[in-house]
Write a structure and sequence with these properties.
heterodimer; A: alpha+beta; outer membrane lipoprotein receptor (LolB), chain A; twelve-stranded antiparallel β-sheet; 4 helices; 26% helix; 44% strand; globular; B: alpha+beta; 13-stranded antiparallel β-sheet; two-stranded antiparallel sheet; 3 helices
Amino acid sequence: MRKLVYILFFTVFAVQAQTPMNSTEAMTLKSKVKALATTTKTISSDFVQYKHLDFLDNDIETSGKLAFKAPDLVKWEYVAPFKYSVLFKDETLFINDEGNKSNVDIGSNKMFKQLNKLIISSVKGDMFDEAEFSIEYFHKDKNSLVYFMPKDKKFAKYIQAFHITFNSKGDVIEVKMLEPSQDYTKIVFSNKVLNQTLDNAIFTN
Amino acid sequence: MRYLLISICFIFFGCASFPKKNNFVATTLTGNISNPYFANPNQDYIYKANIEVYDNAFGGIFIVKKIGDQHHRIVFTTEMGNKLFDFTFNKDDFTVNYILDDLNKKILINVLKKDFKVLITEHLIAEKNYVITDEIIKKTSLDNKTYYYFESPEITKIIRANSHKEKVRFLFTDLNDNIAQQIEIIHSNIKLKINLKSITN
């Protein structure tokens, strides 16, 4: 009996931790995020990536740094347990895989163009495009959680949903990308700094 | 006449069996083959991978998990976590759980399937034994192909060969507690090289 009470207590608690927003709350969040995104000229942040595969005992943990400079410069760099970076610059994707450098011309590649756009919009959280995503809004503890589900069937085959967590300022603190298999990639940001001058040297391969 | 002799020599050596060409010396059987490198069900095997295929090179994360007896899951993702393929090996059954459309080519899947089956197969029957310097070489068969396992006494190399020629070479180095920190798979008949470096916690 006591067990049942505990289970009930935790179930209620879990449900309470994530409640849907009403439409006014959703509108407020959306405009807060959009306002922050438009004034964000640079971002620098650390991140930890957790790759969850159902059959593994532990998530695969990798960590690194992110740098963004408006309108479309992005460097996504893994530092541990291996060194690997991708840099989007001048219509080119520069890859540095533990010192082995290569690049892909993205001017001609629609997929990489989309990837570049996607990284920027998910880092800023500005994915409120009703034509591209079905969107659901939740409160989660003191934060906000928004589900973005791609409408394009081809896209949905890779990623079923983005779950983006925003802090009270409307800044992204976590991005979770769910695959149709329910395996996911979760990226948790820390030491995030907005609008600090970033040296161009950061955006070199 | 001299040319004929040379030609005969070439034919003779060209036709020499793989063990003979490599100076393997036949010896008595000393037990079967046991491959420990992906055999622990309590271990998540995680590798940073680099694949060179023809003139393309790309990287990713190579993941192996033993689910049960003769039952493994092998997944390859990009560094950023996107799944490229997801295979299940269960005894003689092989299932493609997922593969990116661009990689969904029968010929590629078959090459990968054959290579990965060698990595995860734990027990094989030695059919013949050879020695060369201080290594024992055990000849065995897997899915109708011939393999030579080099033991010193850990498995350091596996070669798939037809009766005369090497086809694929598997190298296991930096061996530590039944985990091969480095694995290389090198094909000699196609331009394919797979490099794995352990990042297991």
